[in-house]
Amino acid sequence: MKIELVKTPGCAECAKVKRMIDQDIKPQFPSLEVVEIDALSSAGQELVAKHGIMASPGVLVNGELFSIGGADKAKLIEKLKTLNPTP
């Protein structure tokens, strides 16, 4: 499983979501890969255009848009459980 964080430099909400993933979600899903992508990079711009990301961070789970502008911890955990029923 993979989470991609499409973020912008100096984004407080991006840092908050990254911290939540590292502290609260990664321990429950040790095999989870977390990739940070600068929204201003060419790869980031591709994802922004493809998914219509208009606020940071854009959160993608296994290549599918999960949320824009933040992430709800309980909903993210539920989504990951549906992908990996036995973490």
Spatial order of strands in the largest sheet: 2-1-3-4
- Principal-axes shape call: globular
CATH superfamily: Glutaredoxin
Number of helices: 3
**Structural class category:** alpha+beta
Q: How would you characterize the largest beta sheet?
A: 4 strands, mixed
What is the succession of H and E elements?
EHEHEEH
Number of domains: 1
CATH topology: Glutaredoxin
Question: What is the CATH-assigned architecture?
Answer: 3-Layer(aba) Sandwich
Strand content: 15-25%
The overall average pLDDT, rounded, is 95
> What's the level 1 CATH class?
Alpha Beta
Detail the poorly predicted runs: none
- What is the number of beta strands? 4
Radius of gyration: 12 Å
Tell me roughly what share of residues is in helical segments.
Answer: 40-55%
Alpha-carbon distance between the two ends: 11 Å
Which SSEs are present, and which pair or pack?
Blueprint: E1 2-7, H1 12-25, E2 33-38, H2 42-51, E3 58-61, E4 64-68, H3 73-83
Parallel strand pairs: 1-2
Antiparallel strand pairs: 1-3, 3-4
What's a concise summary of this model?
The protein has 87 residues and is of the alpha+beta class. Helix content is 40%, strand content 24%. It has a single domain, classed as Glutaredoxin, CATH 3.40.30.
